[in-house]
Structure formats: C-alpha cells, structure tokens
Amino acid sequence: MKEITASGQTVEDAVQSALEQLDTTRDHVNVEVIDEGKKGLLGVFGSKRAFVKVTMVKNQIEEAEAFLRNVTEQMNVEVDVTTTVSGNHVTFDLSGDKIAVLIGKRGQTLNAIQYLVHLVLNKDGNQYYTVTVDAEGYRGRRKETLESLAHKMADKALRLNKTVTLEAMPAFERKIIHSALQSNDQVTTHSDGVEPHRRIVIKP
After folding, report:
1. Residue 114 has pLDDT above 90, yes or no
2. Last residue of a domain, one of 81, 101, 136
3. Domain range for 150
4. Range name among 14-28, 32-46, 144-158 with the lowest pLDDT average
5. How many domains would you assign to the chain?
6. Can you tell me the distance from the alpha carbon of 174 to that of 114, in angstroms, rounded to the nearest whole number?
7. Does 4 have pLDDT greater than 90?
8. Both 51 and 66 in a single domain?
9. pTM score, two decimals?
10. Do 51 and 105 lie in a common domain?
C-alpha cells in the first residue's frame, strides 16, 4: 500500500501535493492530517506548514481484477480483461488464445474462478457486488445450451410421465433452467440436494 507524507501552506495544498506525487485522485486515497499548520502574521511571519499522510486505497474492483490476472497468469494463460460495472454488478470479460483452459469442462473452471473473484471482491469492501466472469461470450452460449436442455428434459419428463433429474449445477445455472420452464404449466421444477451437488428435478 502506497503512502506518503506531504506538506503545504494549508491542509488542502498538502493533500493536492500528495495526490500529484501519487498520480491519483481524491476518491482513491485516505487522508490523515498530522498537523493543520498555522497562518502566520499577515500570512507570512511565524507561519507553520500543514502536514498530511495520504494513503492509496486500492479500489475493490481493481483488487479483484488484479487477483483475476494473477490467477490466469499462474495457469499460464495470457488474457485481456475487460471490466464493466453496472450498478452493483461487475462483469470481467476474458479473451485470449488459450481461453478454453479457463472455461474447463462445462464451464467448471470458469465457475470456480468466478466464485473466487466474488470472494475477493467482497472480502472487506463497503459495497457488495455480484460478479460474472465471462470468457469470449461463453456465458451466453452456455445459457442457450441450458435453455435448450431444459425444454428437452421437460419433454422427456412428459413423454415418460416420470420425474427427470439433471446433473449438479451452480445456483446461477439452475436459475436459468427454472426461468426457462417457468411458463411451461405442464411441468414443475425444484432443486434437490446440498451444494455443490444440488440438482434440478423436473416433474410432470
């Protein structure tokens, strides 16, 4: 964590000087006033400079992005990360040559990375964020696959007049299946089991 002590004629001057040295803006720092200084006679005689300690505060989102870059580096995958913030939802979009390594079988690796990034992002921040880690549009393709699977399995349940249980999925993927079948009044869906082995059950 970067911190510097700076001085100036006034506290504001001292803070300004510190911001210039750190090459940052006021919203990325914590300011601690060490000495407010003193205006001298006629602003000159006996004046005392103000001193402040300014500490860089790493933005929650920047920290999560740095963590994400570090993880992909450890996996020997070079990626470009595009970060988009919409309200309290953050999307980290990854692109690169060996992107399939980061996605893994049925997105399991990507889901694990997303889970870790979510923990890092919310570990001690003041603001709570939800997170999506995507890789070259994988989430969109996976959503289409899950929706088509949902309809296929609902048809199977009706055809056999039997309950059908899907494979275990993370909560946000189960939600896609529930939503896809919400308007189908011939079947009902619920989740069964304990995380991380919760599965969707489709009943005629």
Report:
1. yes
2. 136
3. 141-203
4. 32-46
5. 3
6. 16
7. no
8. no
9. 0.66
10. no
